[in-house]
Specification:
This protein has about 110 residues and is mainly α. The chain is built from 7 helices and no strands.
C-alpha cells in the first residue's frame, strides 16, 4: 500500500473513533512518506487517547513540515501555551496573523497572551 492509501485507512479508523488503529495506519503512512497532515491527524488521535507527549511531538513535526498551514500553526501555538512556551506561541500566532489577518481565533489567543 502507498502512503496515501495508508493515510486514508487511518482516516477511516479516525472517523470510527478507533484511535489506536488509526494511529497504526498513520504511522505506517509516515514510515513511507512523512507529511504534515498525517502528523496533524496523529496529533488528533493522541489527544483523544490522552497521550500528550506523543501529541506534542506530532503537532511539532506537523508544524515543522509546514509552518505556513494556519490550522496546524494554531494548534501548535495552543500546545506551546499549555506547555508554558509563551514566546514561541506568540511568535507563531503573530506569523499566522501576518499571513491571515482575519484569523480571529489566532487574534483572540494572541491577545490573551499580552
Amino acid at each position: 500500500m502507498s502512503a496515501i492509501d495508508l493515510y486514508y485507512m487511518g482516516i477511516e479508523y479516525l472517523d470510527r473513533k478507533d484511535y489506536r488503529k488509526a494511529i497504526e495506519y498513520f504511522e505506517l503512512s509516515n514510515d513511507i512518506e512523512q507529511h504534515f497532515k498525517t502528523y496533524e491527524r496523529l496529533f488528533q488521535c493522541y489527544i483523544k487517547i490522552s497521550d500528550t507527549d506523543n501529541a506534542f511531538e506530532c503537532i511539532q513535526k506537523s508544524y515543522t513540515l509546514n509552518p505556513k498551514n494556519d490550522k496546524t500553526a494554531f494548534e501548535y501555538a495552543e500546545i506551546c501555551i499549555k506547555t508554558g512556551n509563551y514566546t514561541l506561541a506568540e511568535n507563531i500566532l503573530t506569523e499566522i496573523l501576518v499571513r491571515n489577518p482575519e484569523y480571529k481565533k489566532a487574534e483572540k489567543l494572541l491577545l490573551s497572551l499580552i
